[in-house]
Protein: Amino acid permease
Amino acid sequence: ITGMLQACIYILHSYVGFDSVSTVALEVKASERSLPIAIIGSTIISLLLYVGICTVMVGLVPYNLLDSDSPLAEAIKATPYGLWLSIIMNLGAIAGLTTVIITVMLSQTRIFYTMADDGLLPKIFARIHPRRATPWLSILIIGD
Structure:
């Protein structure tokens, strides 16, 4: 049971962020059509990537040998050229984290704007730039 609960937590964290698409709905043209496609599409792509990577990992190395802090790197090390491939994979993970940071910063500016518009934050956060039509103070604070 504990392994199953642990897997549920990992699965939950795997899909955190797909809802960031909805925070920028005001910036998107024809959001009624494109927003559902983006959310469902990103969820399906994430699912396929996770299932594919897990399938390949278990095919490379037995699952009981993948008990480390970086099981994907351990599985890749079991292949020919594994050391070099694991370095490339780790660099790719760092690049992926960079995109996550940018996405979170973009989403947070719109969340501040919406909260201020709803009265949960001071109204100054809901100020819109007259020329660019963006929540400029939220962008300035977050550093977007």
Q: What stands out?
A: The CA atoms of residues 134 and 144 lie 12 Å apart. The two ends are 42 Å apart (CA to CA). The longest helix spans residues 82-117. Residues 2-142 form one domain.
